[in-house]
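Reviewers asked in the last cycle whether our approach scales beyond single polypeptides. To address this, we selected a multi-component target totalling 453 residues and predicted its structure end to end. The input consisted of the following lines:
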Amino acid sequence: MLKFKIIAVVLAAGAFCGLGVAAAPNADDPIARLLSGGTASEKRPTAPAKPIPAFQNAGPSPGAMPVGQAPVVMSARIGEHEDRTRLVLELSDPVNLRTFTLANPDRVIVDMPQVSWRLGAPPQPSANGAIKSYRYGLFREGDSRMVIDLNKPVSVANALVLPPSGGFGYRVVIDMFPVLQAKFESDAGWPADLKQRESDAEKAAMAMAPPTGGKKIVVIDAGHGGLDSGTSGVNGSLEKDLVLAEALRLSQMLKTRGYSVHMTRDKDSFIPLPKRVAIARKYKADLLISLHADSNPDSSVSGLSIYTLNDGRSDREASALARRENQSDVIAGVDLSGDNNPVAPILINLAQRDTINRSSRFAESALSRLGTVTDILPRQPHRSASLAVLVAPDVPAVLIELGYLSNRADAAQMNTDRWRANVAQAIAETVDRHFAPEPDTQTATAPKPKFQR
Ligand SMILES: [Zn+2]
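The resulting structure, written as structure tokens, was:
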């Protein structure tokens, strides 16, 4: 489920009046605190001009920057003028940014080397300007990204970097000018080098994996990550963090039970949906378990549910969930115009029907075991939907919505160690049962021992 994280936006009322010159430092201003190193009354030392490092995104990823060394984004401001919408990012160090646009949904993507985001609590952007909402975060190791959803088509001028002055750090100014929709659409699309890089990354993910020596292979997929936070809980917890913690626990548990386990992500980074599928196929996974948490406008809705793939003929609620979960790549600014569009209608062949049947058996078995340790969604806890992460035709796959972060009791228990351990244990036992050899009715002389809970 998605909920946009809106960055700290300072809306200049009326005319955009420079870079916050009107804002005198005060104790409530997080930017002022940051600038002064803790107390708002001290004066910020003027940073010496630094050379601007080369833009990294076009080349191979430079890898994660050590904590404390990445440039810090300290504030963001929007100015709404008659002729343009202006976005200003204030940074501790100069960085080169690259901007490009993607259509349907219309977005502006701002790519930069890995930065550390330290923005305060955000007001909503105004509906009058070009910016509808936006979010930011790690796109992958070494690369940060901001994705801006647009109210209207724009063309983006080259980003301008200003040196520190007037008590402010380095500022990057991005101007967005209104254009006709047709012009926007003809300009939109991924730069060719980025497109190539994505397709290389996907091919690399598909490359042959080493043999596992007869062990069953399970791929654990923690939903969302990086600049896609998923849904956020009534208690402030984020889906991406919750499911990663549970995925790490489950992965460890399955390893100690003798499975060969791989994770699509083991840290807070964004992984496009097709790449998650590619990872499962690369390892020739016997099972893919994708972990998520849901959200509902009705805060009384609670309980765990499990989804398996279908061919698009979902009920309304299942379709709505598929739209939410398939949205991940849109949120992170991934190009959906290619052949591997995860939201494209899914054609299910005969081989895939067998995969779906196996997935459904796992889902039913998991629900009966999980029902002993957590609440299950009362009505129809096993549903099927066109979920992009489940489409590998040869990998049985389930997506578990662990509970509702919009429900106070669910959100609270999901944060407890006891609940997390019980749920991981129940899933691990279901995996055991799923892979237990079928009883051979021809030669069996004694009844096979029942599966132990
Ligand atoms: Zn989710």
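The two ends are 32 Å apart (CA to CA). We regard this as preliminary and will revisit it once experimental data from Aim 1 are available.
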